[in-house]
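User: Quick sanity check before I run a bigger batch. Here is a single chain. Can you write out its predicted 3D structure?
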Amino acid sequence: MYCMLYSSEPLWTGEAGIAMLLLFLQAVFACLPAAAAFRKKQTGLGAACLALGILGEIFWIPWIVAVVLVSGKIPFRERRDGLQLRTAGRIYGLFVAAYGIILLLVGMSAFGDVAGSDFREFYLPTILNGVVGGGFLLLVGGLTIACSFARYRGFWGWYMALPFLLLVGTGQIGRYAGFLRYIGYLFLVGGGIFFWWGVFQSVDRESRAEERKAFEKSGPQPGERRPAQGKMRCLGGQYAGAEFPFKDGETLCLGSDPNLAHLVFSTEETGPLHLEITYQKQEGVYLLAHPAQCQVFLRGQGWLTREVLTVPAGSRVGFGSPVQEFLLL
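Assistant: Done. Predicted structure follows.
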């Protein structure tokens, strides 16, 4: 039975072409942090992460440093159209974990077959390689599901690392029989390409200077009459159609914790105290404040990259999933 389950010819000698292709893709996937930095036009960070990614092919620590640096310094924006990365990650993570379990079961079954065989010393390294690979993919699948519920840095950090880890997983299935091996190649490489491109496309390319310039340009002009109180109209979401006035200097708190927020939301991706909005009559603007791990978008500008910001009346802000969107009047 074990002769049917495992190939007697190692990947690296029997299928050199496939091995070279997988090594090339692994190098490309290791350089995703550099690609994200270059897309944001941070060439210095991109060059450093490129070197770290290449070194990470041999030593994992430089690649881990690159992932941590980029997930902390580069802003990302989750797409609201098409298949979202979080949803895709949960589905894909289930399949990766299931595939890992299959490899574990096959390896354990083969181990039982060869335990009393005279050839056990020949087959045991191959079987152990498969068991380790199955356990590795089970772990990767589980973390992919868990990190789909993580906040900003935890989510983007893991999904930036995922393509490289999937290609590492292909090196652990190289000694399995053809039907398991080639399914694994297609499944892991395809997933790696999908998430690599998804993370790369999610880099928020809006510059802070342009964002600040747009706010200043659209703000109230000298001598313009300013309303005595602010008002927030809910355009969509849990409180759609409702309006909430607040006086000069008064703060309206939005979040998921009723002990911290005036408006409580039960939607996903909403923090305990997600956003604070304060009306400032003298300047005729609204002050927005939110924790770094809580994402807030401004219509026409993208995801906010600063934790404290002033915006003019007429601005539209939102957060959460499904999106909760508000117009500041």
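DSSP finds eleven helices and eleven strands in the chain.

User: Great, the batch can go ahead then.
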